[in-house]
Design goal:
Blueprint: H1 4-16, H2 19-56, E1 61-66, H3 87-94, E2 100-115, E3 118-127, H4 129-134, E4 139-142, H5 147-152, E5 156-159, H6 161-168, E6 177-180, E7 183-191, E8 207-210, H7 211-218, E9 225-230, H8 236-247, E10 256-260, H9 261-304, H10 306-314, H11 319-352, H12 362-388, H13 392-397
Parallel strand pairs: 3-8, 5-7
Antiparallel strand pairs: 1-9, 1-10, 2-3, 2-6, 2-9, 4-7, 5-8, 6-7
Helix pairs in contact: 1-11, 2-9, 2-11, 2-12, 9-11, 9-12, 11-12
Length: about 400
Amino acid sequence: MIPISEITKLAVRSLLRNKSRALLTMLGIIIGVSAVILLVSIGQGLQTYITQQFESLGSNLIVVLPGKVGVGGSVTGPNLAGSKLTLSDVDKLSRLGGAVESVGAGIEMPSTVSFLGKSKYTTTGGVTAEYQKMRNLTVSTGRMISDSDNRSGRNVVDIGPGLVDSLFSGANPIGKEVTMGGQKFQVVGVLSKIGSGGFGVDINSFVMLPLTTAQRLFGMKSVQAIGIKARDKESIPEAIALVKKELGKSLKSDDFSVVDSSSLVATINQILGVVTFALGGIAAISLVVGGVGIMNIMLVSVTERTREIGLRKAVGAKPSDILYQFLIEAVVLSLGGGMIGVAIGALGAWGISHFIETTVTWWSVALAFGVSAAIGIVFGVAPAARASKLNPIEALKYE
């Protein structure tokens, strides 16, 4: 038997004689591996981002969400559109005292904000003063939304620094009026910059306005979330019990969910984990397509090199030598495509990280690369076996 090292050299030389075909054969694997790494990195980055955002709110935060939010085994999200939570519920909870330190509420809706012909489609948040504090929002210039603004339903807004750049070209916006939904709103504050950005929404282009004003603007009577700050971390179970008891007087148990921030993060990450797995699975389909491409090209290669195979067998090459050579060629193609795919996927994730947060995990790289190697072996077996079984006399006669 010819040494494996020599067979490997022959396989590599054979591939180098047809560089263009080898590269095109690897293309399916390259696309598949890079897609898996890229999509998984986006999903993982989203989980990291959301976890960091909730951790920044503190460990003693409790959130009341509309509908039944699944925690643990079941995975269900809040029913924001059918919310039955109202400002009267916020008032009731704010009077509980004891383990409940403060209560705030908010809604978020997309809207277009305009100033002197310039427009920006962004997220508009209707908030109470306490809710702004719970979200750790501060202003760099001007003032925050106040309780007085909410009681009076004033048309005032705090805007993010991104809107200052896009609508006011960096000029001081305090005292100027922007337009939303055909109504004028006076800018009273500029929010401090928050991180580097979010997923699909520029978090530094938020518009914050009094919750009562937002409800009037969007024709809503409900609130989408109620934030409750417990006295301390140890008081969370007591605060949750008080909140459930109070809301249970006017709402059914399926109308609301009370969760602390750690449970909410666990639920969201569970949902995102399923999404990430699904994205990775969809991308992995292209790896199978790439494997089929390798098998087809190797079968064509066997046909083209029939006389070569016959000659090698005639001078003493064993069927196992031929088998290993074609199998090694297939594995080299898949491994080469895997390495290039890993590099492209990592570079792509790095590029996207300038816009949204991405996290390239070692297991996604190992999984994608391992699958690409396995594909080379699995899809290379049939062509290699066919080549090894060729009759040397018939092969030499082949035209």
